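Q: Given only this backbone (213 positions), what sequence would you predict?
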C-alpha cells in the first residue's frame, strides 16, 4: 500500500493502483507501472538492449575517468548516467545486429576547456604509452597548469589504465605505464585536460588504437 508523506501535497511512497511513487536524490517522482506486452523482445527492443549492453561495458571500464569528465552534467543524475545517455545517443555506430562503440564520438569527458592540440601516442616502448601534444596554453581558455587526463582502454580485458591528474599542459608529454599482462593486447587511447582546481575539463580526444609492445 502506498503512503503520502507530509499531507496531500507530499511525496508518494509505494504503489497506489498502477502508480508507483518514490524519491531519488531528494526528488519525489511518480511513474506508471508498465503494462505487460505480448512480445517483450521486439526488434526495436532487442536493438536498444544491444546498444545499452555495449555502452555499459565501455563505460564501466572508464567510470573513474567519467566521474571527472561528466561532473558538469551530473544534475539530477549521476555522472555515469549522463555519460550513458550521451554515448547511447551519439557514440554508437553500425546497423542491427552489428552495433559497436565509435570511440571517436563516445566522449569520456565533456567540457569547454581547450582540448589537446596535435595530440599523438607512441607505443614503441614495452608496456607503456607516450602521450604527446602541443603547448597551446596561450590560446583561448587553455592554461599552462591544466593537467593531462590520459587513458588506455583494453576491450579484451574490459578494463582501463589511466592517469587523472598528470603532466601540465605546458609539459607536452605524459607517460602511462601498462601492466605486463597487456603485452600484445590492443588498446584504445584517449586524453583530455582538467584545470588545476578540478573545476573544468575539455572534451576527450580519441587518439586511435595500438598494440602494446
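A: Predicted residues:
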Amino acid at each position: 500500500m502506498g503512503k503520502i508523506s507530509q499531507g496531500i501535497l507530499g511525496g508518494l511512497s509505494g504503489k497506489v493502483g498502477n502508480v508507483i511513487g518514490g524519491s531519488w536524490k531528494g526528488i519525489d517522482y511518480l511513474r506508471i507501472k508498465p503494462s505487460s506486452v505480448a512480445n517483450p523482445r521486439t526488434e526495436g527492443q532487442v536493438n536498444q538492449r544491444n546498444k545499452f549492453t555495449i555502452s555499459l561495458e565501455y563505460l564501466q571500464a572508464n567510470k573513474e575517468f567519467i566521474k571527472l569528465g561528466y561532473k558538469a552534467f551530473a544534475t539530477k543524475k549521476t555522472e555515469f548516467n549522463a555519460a550513458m545517455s550521451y554515448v547511447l545517443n551519439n557514440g554508437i555506430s553500425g546497423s542491427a545486429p552489428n552495433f559497436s562503440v565509435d570511440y571517436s564520438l563516445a566522449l569520456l569527458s565533456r567540457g569547454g576547456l581547450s582540448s589537446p592540440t596535435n595530440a599523438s601516442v607512441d607505443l614503441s616502448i614495452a608496456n607503456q604509452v607516450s602521450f604527446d601534444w602541443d603547448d597551446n596554453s596561450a590560446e583561448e581558455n587553455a592554461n599552462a597548469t591544466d593537467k593531462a587526463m590520459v587513458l588506455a582502454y583494453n576491450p579484451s580485458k574490459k578494463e582501463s589504465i589511466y592517469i587523472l591528474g598528470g603532466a601540465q599542459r605546458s609539459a607536452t608529454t605524459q607517460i602511462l605505464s601498462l601492466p605486463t599482462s597487456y603485452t600484445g593486447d590492443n588498446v584504445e587511447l584517449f586524453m583530455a585536460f582538467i584545470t588545476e582546481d578540478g573545476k573544468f575539463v575539455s572534451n576527450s580526444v580519441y587518439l586511435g588504437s595500438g598494440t602494446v609492445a
